[in-house]
Amino acid sequence: MMRPVIDEEMLQAALYSLQNEKLVMGESVFKFEEEFARYCNVKYAISIGSGTAALQIALQSLGIGQEDEVLTTPFSFFATSNAVIHAGGRPSFADVEDNGFNLDPSKAAERLTAKTRAIVPVHLYGQPANMDEFRDLADDKGISLVEDACQAHGAEYNGRKVGSLGDVACFSFYSSKNMTVGGDGGMIVTNDAEVADAARSFRDCGRASKYTMSRIGYTARLNTVNAAIGRVQLRKLDRWNQTRRGMANLYRQELEGASGVELPPAETLKERPVYHLFVIRSQHRDKLASYLEKHNVEAAIHYPVPIHLQEPYRARYGYSEGAFPVSERLAGQVLSLPIHATITEEEVRTVSRLVRESD
Ligand SMILES: Cc1ncc(COP(=O)(O)O)c(C=O)c1O
Q1: Residue 2 burial class via C-beta count within 10 angstroms: exposed 0-12, middle 13-18, buried 19 and up
Q2: Ligand 1, residues 57, 72, 85, 172: which to mutate, most atoms within 8 A of Cβ?
Q3: Given 148, 295, 315, 347, which is the most exposed site by the fewest CB atoms within 10 A?
Q4: Spatial contact of 217 and 230, defined as CB atoms under 8 Å apart
């Protein structure tokens, strides 16, 4: 849900940066990177102009390109696999878990080929993917593991923050995310110094130094003013995530036993989600969605069409219905109920009542 918080402190930080810093690569950029790396408990963070560019540059910094396959989920925002194509590679897909929304490690294992160079699990809706199994799989095959953490700032797995679980991880700060930068933005995080150096160069025209180039790069930097806003947002992220968790619990209580409604996987000791979205499943999703819309509830569908069935993917790779049945089924059943940092208990109760009523 798109309810970004832009408060007085953020406005002041933005104003200060515009009046006192270099507009591009100013001090706030480097401070934001340091603070974000510390937050994820990794050595390096490299800010980027968007989450999509972060994924593309992360893959290229790992040396992935022409002829290389990258395995990911077809049930994600399409930027995940678009980034593979932008990097010059070929996306391949495996279906999601039967009882969840994330890439299934055993189905992924079956889809690896001699050309697969990386696996990109997505922590969809803020729910961590099964990283232990992906780590084993990647190590076993000697390939890279890249987290698409674009929806999962602050989520934890085995007591560790997402972003610190793969070889590289990518975040987005698009306005609907758990934290934003007051516009588009992204971040790459890693403990690998070589990958970090390559990413810094790729985002900055391929520079080695001011007038020498070490690779063909991009203009994909995060503006200083956005970094300044991001620093303030980052300090509030844990509190906002706590609110989202509280509201997710309230939805669970209110919707417990509601007929025809399946609730998202519950929090476990191992997986601590951050509820970027609170997604229920219903056999009568479209009827429920229209009922909510009629009552001015902002529900949404993430995502009505799995990536492989989007037109450019059908045309380019020849996919058709039936290729990934669980993802295809989910696309017809999922419904995201409103959840954000400023939602009230009353709103959650009202939405829950409407969901029950619509049956
Ligand atoms: C799972 C996922 N991957 C990648 C992206 C791309 O991020 P951006 O929109 O910042 O390019 C997004 C969000 O928009 C996303 O939700």
Answers
A1: exposed
A2: 172
A3: 315
A4: no
The Å distance, Cα 259 to ligand 1 centre, comes to: 33
Ligand 1 mean position to 140 CA, how many Å?
A: 28
What pLDDT does residue 1 have?
60
Residue bearing tokens 């569908």: 301
Question: pLDDT at position 3, please?
Answer: 82
Residue 52 Cα: closest atom of ligand 1: 11
pLDDT on residue 330: 98
Nearest CA among 250, 208, 239 for reference residue 355: 250
Exposed (0-12), middle (13-18) or buried (19+): which is 267, by Cβ within 10 Å? middle
> What integer pLDDT is reported at residue 359 of this predicted model?
76
168 contacts 62 by C-beta, under 8 angstroms: yes
Question: Look-up: residue for tokens 């199994």?
Answer: 133
- Please name the residue that has the structure tokens 């995060």: 222
- The answer to whether the CB of 150 is under 6 A from ligand 1 is yes
- Residue 189: HSE in the Cβ half-sphere, 13 Å Cα cutoff: 27
The parts of the chain modelled with pLDDT lower than 50 are none
pLDDT of residue 266: 86
Relative to beta strand 271-272, strand 156-157 is antiparallel
Judge contact between 156 and 41, C-beta under 8 A.
no
Instruction: Say which residues have a Cβ less than 8 Å from residue 337's Cβ, sequence separation at least 6.
Output: 251, 278, 279, 280, 297, 299, 351, 355
Whole-number Å distance between alpha carbons of 282 and 155:
26
Find all residues with CB under 8 Å of 270, minimum gap 6, and list them.
157, 158
The string of pLDDT tens digits covering residues 153-212 is 999 999 999 999 999 999 999 999 999 999 999 999 999 999 999 999 999 999 999 999
Cα 339 to ligand 1 centroid, rounded to whole Å: 18
Bridge-based pairing of strands 156-157 and 278-282 is unpaired
